[in-house]
Design goal:
With about 140 residues, this protein is mainly alpha-helical. The protein is about 70% helix and about 0% strand. The chain is globular.
Length: about 140
């Protein structure tokens, strides 16, 4: 797992650099490709944080990357943006723009399977480029 995570962190940093140069649409394009690849090997329900409603998996299946991120970010917020959640800890530590820290928090906090790293990379990049504080505020309405 360590090698796979190291590779994912390297890929996330490269994608983050590209997004900073070319815009956030690059990350959404990568998310689209990652979702297509993931659906071939596992159900999207594997991406849902534990404790969330299983029916959400059905609604995620038919979404493009932008809508997927909108729905998925609400699930992430519930798990990671609480007062003592992992994203708040990163904000307090001054690591809110580190794509590596965000990717690590997503994978470890949510128990995301290794096969989902390809999907989590663009998700982490989108969040990093939004900023954790902004991400947590923008997704507040999903509660």
């Amino acid at each position: 797992m360590a090698d796979q995570m190291d590779d994912a962190l390297e890929r996330a940093n490269k994608l983050d650099e590209t997004v900073r140069e070319s815009g956030i649409s690059v990350a959404y394009g990568e998310l689209d490709r990652a979702l297509s690849a993931f659906k071939k090997v596992a159900p999207l329900e594997a991406l849902i944080p534990s404790g969330e409603e299983a029916r959400l998996g059905l609604s995620l299946r038919a979404l493009d990357a932008g809508r997927f991120f909108d729905v998925y970010s609400g699930l992430l917020r519930k798990s990671l943006c609480t007062p003592e959640g992992e994203f708040r800890k990163l904000i307090r530590a001054g690591m809110d723009s580190s794509v590596g820290a965000i990717l690590t928090a997503l994978v470890t906090s949510l128990g995301i399977p290794v096969i989902a790293l390809g999907v989590m990379i663009p998700v982490a990049v989108i969040i990093a480029n939004t900023g954790l504080e902004t991400f947590c505020e923008l997704t507040k309405d999903g509660d």
